[in-house]
Structure formats: C-alpha cells, structure tokens
Amino acid sequence: MLKASYKKYILNFKVPAGTSRGVYNQKETFFIILEDEYKSNIGIGECGILRGLSHDDIPDYEQKLSYITQNINEYIDNFHIELANLPSIRFGIETAFRSLNSNDSFQLFPTDFSSGDAGIPINSLVWMGDTKYMETQIKEKLEVGYQCIKMKIGAIDFEEELRLLRLIRSKFSKKDLQIRVDANGAFNKDNVYKRLSALEPLGIHSIEQPIMPKQYELMREIINKSPISIALDEELIGVNNIEDKKELVSFLNPHYLVLKPSLVGGYIASEEWIDITKNNKIGYWITSALESNVGLNAIAQWTYTLDSDMTQGLGTGSLYTNNIESPLSEKNGYLYYDKDRNWNTQALK
Known about the structure:
Elements: E1 2-19, E2 22-36, E3 43-47, H1 61-70, H2 79-82, H3 87-100, E4 120-121, E5 124-126, H4 131-143, E6 148-152, H5 158-171, E7 178-182, H6 192-199, E8 204-208, H7 216-225, E9 230-232, H8 242-252, E10 256-259, H9 261-264, H10 267-280, E11 283-286, H11 293-305, E12 328-331, E13 334-337
Helix pairs in contact: 4-5, 8-10
C-alpha cells in the first residue's frame, strides 16, 4: 500500500515576471510525496498549476488534490485516464510514481544529462517590462553566451519592442543568434498581419501564439499567410483526446508545437503530441511552465531522452528567491545537472 501527501509551496520571483496576461510576483505550486513501506526512497512530483491558464485552474483544485492523495492506491493503474482533465495533477502523479520506482528520487531518466556528462541547449527568456529593464535582461543573457533568446512581446508599446529586437539583430546575425518571440495571444485580427510583417525583416525564428486560442479559422489563416513560422502553445491546453489532437494539428497545420508537460498532462500526453508532429512533419520543443526545480528537473531529464536537436525552453530555474536547491545549473546557454551539488529537500517536508 502506498501513502501519499501533498504540500503547497509559494515561489517568490526575484523580480516581477511580466507577460501580456499580467505580471507574476509569486507562483503557487504543490508537491506530491509518495511513500512505500518496501522502498527506501520516496517519490516526489510537482503539480505546477498556472492560475489563469491551466486547464485545471478550478476553485476546488486543492480539494481534488487532497482527495487523490488520500486515495492514491485507487489511481495506480488508471491515473492517466482518470486525471485527464487535471493535467498538472496528472503530471505530478506521473513523476512521483517514476521517482518512487527509481533508485534515486531525483534520477528519473538515467542519461548522460542526469549523470552530469551532457547539457541541454536552452533559450534565454526575456520578460516584459519597461524598455530599460528589457534591454538590461537582453544584455546580460547575451554576455553569458546564449545562442537563442525568447522575448515576450505584446505588453508594452510594439514599436519599443521592435526597437529592442532591431538592437539585438544589429549586433548578432541570424547565424549567431536565434530569436524567438512569444505574444501569449496579445495580437488580434486587426493588427496581427501588420505586426508579423514588421517582425519579418528581423530574422525571427518563430512566434508563439500570436492570437488568443480557440479562434481556429483565423489561426489557420494566419499560419497559411504568416511570413514567420507560427508555434502553438496555449492552443494545446485542454485538448486531451488523441483524436482531437490529431484533428487540431491537421486543421491548423502549424510550423511548431510548444509542449509544456504541466499544461498538457505529462510525459505520455506530450509524447502523443510529439508522435503527431512527426507524422505531420512539423517541429516541436519542450518548455517548462514556471515550475520549481523539482518540476524542471523532471521535465529536463525526460527532454534529453527525446534526442531533439531543438533549443529547449528550460531556462526558468533561476527565477525565484526560494527555489528548491538542486544540481540544476545554467552555463553558456546550456542546462546541466551538476552531480557535485545536492538537493535540499527541507522545503518539501
């Protein structure tokens, strides 16, 4: 018999994190702890809900999590089905089970990455804010060797955002630096084509979610007409049935999918999307969704097993003042698992 518990934890941002949907100062998350009397280690998973965005952002979220942990033995064999509409909880349970069944609670996928012998190329994330703040972020990221940056756009004056992007491109060519932008649905039918055309000369790799999701006809038209590759992100949230996933990709035919395991329901759900991308010859990359280092570690170790040649969106580990101390570290645009550093699990108790 398994025993499960959960703990709510509030992560504090070092500086406010701005997006077109608002500004984050704190981020709540939930850790699931599994225990088995026959195993020496424990299982640890993170339910990284994003309020206002996650499909399972519901009023009784914590009550459901409490019920599931109290009745964990009922979910051992069917949690992927039973928790399909609770993607962040499903991912937390999925990783907790894998953690429990590993020799080391934090070694979920033994690879060259988890042994510290290889890194994962990651993009640097530039948050929205005033012009000076964004310019400072960009300068710092480029100085430490990132070869791909992702810039949030859509919250401040668009001309200022263009100016910053032009400044970057004037110093770094497409060959030297890949630029991705993420609008988080900030554009609309009246300005989207004008803004995409303005971005085109800057050698932008791709733009994530230019308009809000569920505008299928307009999104399809944008993907067909856009001079810049379109990546779907929020569009994937809440699409849980495999046939619905196939239908969505077939209808929209995007250039890329951005997969966030906490938002789409974990490894198995993400791998369904990946199989669809391969069958439709479109690209994808994996992105964390502001989890603590517990969730980031689970996503990163799995990501390395995919043998993807894309730069991944896993550079969120240094955002918080009170993150869980871990072996994860960023260096020269790569994420590493430093075996000389230890996990500090005091906050999980």
